[in-house]
Amino acid sequence: MPRLGELERSVMNVLWDASEPLTVREVLDSLDDRALAYTTVMTVLDRLGAKEMVVRERDGRAFRYAPALARDAATSELLHAALDQAGGDRTAALVHFARSVDPAEAQALRAALDEIESRTSE
Fold first, then answer.
1. Long-range contacts for 40-49 (Cβ within 8 Å, ≥24 apart)?
2. φ, ψ dihedrals at 54, nearest 5°
3. Residue 34's domain is classified under what CATH number?
4. Same domain, 57 and 91
5. What is the pLDDT of residue 1?
6. 4: left (phi over 0), alpha (psi -120 to 50) or beta
């Protein structure tokens, strides 16, 4: 997954929070705390399309945009990319990360690891 700038992340959050694909105007209206031009949001969506972060479908003369990946899948790909780019010991990085999470996150990790172990032992 490519790195995203601040505005790209904001646009992706709008799309991830939406229940259906959105037009440029709908994304712009959801970013109401920013003074942005329509063309700026359209350019950001085009760039996100080039990065394969969004898919678009024609709706009359306009396009509707939706995330190409769910938020958790995109985050997972970002973590994998960070581990690949670090060039060091992946296991050490994962252990360091695991030691930095809060108890609720640790419980979720533990449950996921238990699920993986139960699948491999079948």
1. 40/7, 41/11, 44/7, 44/8, 44/11, 45/11, 47/8, 48/4, 48/8, 48/11, 48/12
2. -130, 155
3. 1.10.10.10
4. no
5. 60
6. beta
Tell me: do 12 and 63 sit in the same domain: yes
Q: Are residues 23 and 56 in the same domain?
A: yes
Statement to judge: residues 24 and 63 lie in one domain: yes
Burial 26-55 (b: 16+ CB within 10 A, else e): bbbebbeeeebeeeebbebbebbeeeebbe
pLDDT tens digits for 81-107?
Answer: 888 877 778 888 888 888 999 999 999
pLDDT higher than 80, residue 27: yes
- Token pair 């950001």 is found at 44
| Residue range(s) defining the domain that contains residue 60 | 6-67
Q: Tell me, what's the pLDDT at 94?
A: 84
